[in-house]
């Protein structure tokens, strides 16, 4: 991405190389190729955009602002403003901007969303061994203890994970629950998997 700077201000943003007129000169799209150096492009007012993601946060937990573009010190920079933490709890009646909604509408918060995902993952893990339970009901064939132990462990861990999510005090705490360390371990943990 490039910014066209004229009289010290960004007048145009260019996402894809294209032919363009700068001043009174028509340039082919080759001005964006390696045939031109950055210095040559900057001499005619074209600056490659430098992206500053300092304020950008994980969009699963925060709403980032649109990028703003600035030219200073011979550099065009794209940066984000301060992000807004997504709501932890469900809301109804109004949206995040205070606009009145139908009171029946419920906007799920992060806690509801994350708990729903945990329940879905637990259901998927349990579904792998549901046939043992069906066979027990149909043919009265015993379910191996390894299977009953695994199913109980999945339910127990699911409940622990739901409690951890419910107890998250703020969005940063929620994000921390899901952040894996160098060994791939996260504070929330993972559901047990059946070893075959």
- Shape label: elongated
Number of strands: 11
Taking strands numbered 1, 2, ... along the chain, how are they ordered across the largest sheet? 2-1-5-8-7
What is the rounded distance between the termini? Answer: 50 Å
H/E series, N to C?
EEEEHEEEEEEEHHHH
From the helix content, strand content and strand pairing, which structural class follows? alpha+beta
Biggest beta sheet summary: 5 strands, mixed
Low-confidence sequence ranges: none
Tally of domains: 2
Strand content: 15-25%
**C-alpha Rg, in Å?**
27 Å
What does this structure look like?
The structure is a single chain. The chain has 5 helices and 11 strands. The longest helix has 22 residues, at 145-166. The relative contact order is 0.10. Helix 2 runs antiparallel to helix 4 (145-166). With 196 residues, it is of the alpha+beta class. The model has no long low-confidence stretch (mean pLDDT 93). The radius of gyration is 27 Å and the shape is elongated. Strand 3 (20-22) and strand 4 (25-27) form a beta hairpin. The protein has 2 domains: 2-84, no CATH class; 91-178. It starts with a strand and ends in an 18-residue tail after the last helix. The strands form 4 sheets. The protein has a 5-stranded mixed sheet with strand order 2-1-5-8-7. The protein has a two-stranded antiparallel sheet with strand order 3-4. Helices cover 33% and strands 21% of the residues.
């Amino acid at each position: 991405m490039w910014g066209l700077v004229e009289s010290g201000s960004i007048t145009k943003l260019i996402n894809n190389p294209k032919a363009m007129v700068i001043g009174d000169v028509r340039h082919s799209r080759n001005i964006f190729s390696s045939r031109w150096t950055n210095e040559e492009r900057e001499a005619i007012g074209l600056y490659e955009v430098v992206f500053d993601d300092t304020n950008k946060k994980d969009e699963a937990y925060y709403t980032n602002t649109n990028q703003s573009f600035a030219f200073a010190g011979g550099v065009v920079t794209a940066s984000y403003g301060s992000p807004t933490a997504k709501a932890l709890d469900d809301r109804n009646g109004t949206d995040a901007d205070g606009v009145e909604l139908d009171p029946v509408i419920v906007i799920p918060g992060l806690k509801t969303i994350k708990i729903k995902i945990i329940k879905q993952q637990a259901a998927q893990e349990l579904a792998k061994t549901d046939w043992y339970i069906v066979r027990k009901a149909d043919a009265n064939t015993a379910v191996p203890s390894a299977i009953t132990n695994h199913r109980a462990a999945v339910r127990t861990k699911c409940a622990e994970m739901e409690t951890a999510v419910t107890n998250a005090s703020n969005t940063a705490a929620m994000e921390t629950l899901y952040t894996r360390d160098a060994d791939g371990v996260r504070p929330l943990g993972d559901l047990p998997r059946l070893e075959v």
